[in-house]
Design a protein that fits this description.
Pfam families: EamA (PF00892). The chain has about 300 residues and is mainly alpha-helical. The protein is built from 13 helices and no strands.
Length: about 300
C-alpha cells in the first residue's frame, strides 16, 4: 500500500472513529432508564473482555501479558496507569450522565475545549511553548466559558470536567507508551474488578438491569463494551497513518455531531447565550488550528521581532 493510499485509509479510520463518538449519545439515550453508575460499570466490565477477545484474535495476548509483567516492575508506570484508568472512568461517567440528563450541548462544549486544555497542560507539565496566536485562542475560549458562567450564574462544570479529565488522561498516557489496544486492555483491567463487584452487588439486591431488566436492555449493556472499544481501535489505526494536524482537524467531527443531536434531535435549548459562548469557543479553535500552520508560525515570528520578544 503506497503512502497516499495509507493516508486515505488513515483519514477514513479516524473520521469513522469520530463519527461513532459523535453519535454515541444515541446509544446512551437508549439506556436512559438505567442509572449512569450501572451503565459505567457495564461499560468498563464488557470493554475489558471485548478488547481481550480482540487481542487474542490479533495474536497480541503475549504482548499484553509481557507488558503487564513489565509494568509490575515500574511503580511510576503503575501509578500513571491507575491515574489514567480513574480519569477515563470519571470522563465516561460524566458524559453518560450529561447525555441522559439532557445536557448534550454542554457535553459537546467540553470536547470543543479539550484540545485547548491539552495544549495548556503541555505548557504547564511538559514545558511546551505556545505561540502568540495560541495565547489569543486561550483568551477567546476563556471569554466563552465566562459568558456561560455569568449568564447562567453557574460554572459550566460538566464541560470543564470532561475537558480537563480527558486532557489529564492524555497526559498520563504519555508516561505509558504501549500498543493502543494493549493500553485500553490495561486501563479497563485496573477498574474492571471494581465494576464487577458493583454489578455483583446490584445483582444480589435484585436491582440490576443486566439480568433483571428486559432482554434489549441486557444486550445494550453488554454491547457497551464494543461501543466503547471499536471507535478507540479505529482511532488507533487512523492515528498511525495520518499527520497529527489532520487528526486535530478531524477531532471536531465528534462534538459537532453531538451538538447537532442535542439541538435538532433531542430538542435541547440552544439560546442566544449559547450561541455567543460557542462563537468565542469556535473562534478560539479556528485560531488554534491556524497556529499549527506554517503561515501562522511565520506571522508569530514576525510579531515577536516587531515587539523585540525573545524567540
Amino acid at each position: 500500500m503506497d503512502q497516499r493510499t495509507e493516508q486515505q485509509a488513515g483519514v477514513l479510520y479516524a473520521a469513522l472513529s469520530y463519527i461513532i463518538w459523535g453519535v454515541l449519545p444515541i446509544y446512551w439515550k437508549l439506556l436512559d432508564h438505567v442509572n449512569a453508575d450501572e451503565i459505567l460499570a457495564n461499560r468498563v466490565f464488557w470493554s475489558f473482555f471485548f478488547v481481550a477477545a480482540v487481542l487474542l484474535m490479533n495474536k497480541k495476548w503475549g504482548l499484553f501479558t509481557g507488558t503487564l509483567r513489565g509494568l509490575a516492575e515500574n511503580k511510576k508506570k503503575i501509578a500513571a496507569l491507575t491515574v489514567a484508568s480513574m480519569l477515563i472512568s470519571i470522563n465516561w461517567f460524566i458524559y453518560i450522565w450529561a447525555v441522559n440528563t439532557d445536557q448534550m450541548i454542554e457535553a459537546s462544549l467540553g470536547y470543543y475545549i479539550n484540545p485547548l486544555v491539552s495544549v495548556l497542560l503541555g505548557m504547564v507539565f511538559l514545558k511546551e511553548r505556545l505561540s502568540i496566536i495560541q495565547y489569543i485562542s486561550f483568551a477567546l475560549a476563556a471569554i466563552g466559558v465566562l459568558v456561560m458562567t455569568v449568564s447562567y450564574g453557574q460554572f459550566p462544570w460538566i464541560a470543564l470536567t470532561l475537558a480537563v479529565s480527558f486532557g489529564l488522561y492524555g497526559l498520563a498516557k504519555k508516561l505509558i507508551k504501549v500498543d493502543s489496544t494493549v493500553g485500553l486492555a490495561l486501563e479497563t483491567l485496573v477498574v474492571m474488578p471494581i465494576a464487577a463487584i458493583y454489578i455483583g452487588y446490584l445483582v444480589s439486591k435484585g436491582s440490576d438491569s443486566l439480568f433483571a431488566g428486559s432482554w434489549s436492555t441486557s444486550l445494550l449493556l453488554a454491547g457497551a463494551g464494543a461501543a466503547t472499544a471499536l471507535p478507540l481501535l479505529f482511532f488507533a489505526k487512523g492515528a498511525q497513518r495520518i499527520p497529527l494536524a489532520t487528526l486535530g482537524i478531524l477531532q471536531y467531527i465528534a462534538p459537532t455531531l453531538t451538538l447537532m443531536l442535542g439541538v435538532f434531535i433531542y430538542h435541547e435549548t440552544f439560546s442566544a447565550v449559547h450561541l455567543l459562548a460557542f462563537t468565542f469557543i469556535w473562534s478560539a479553535l479556528i485560531l488554534y488550528s491556524l497556529s499549527r500552520t506554517k503561515i501562522a508560525a511565520a506571522l508569530s515570528l514576525k510579531m515577536k521581532k516587531e515587539k523585540g520578544m525573545p524567540m
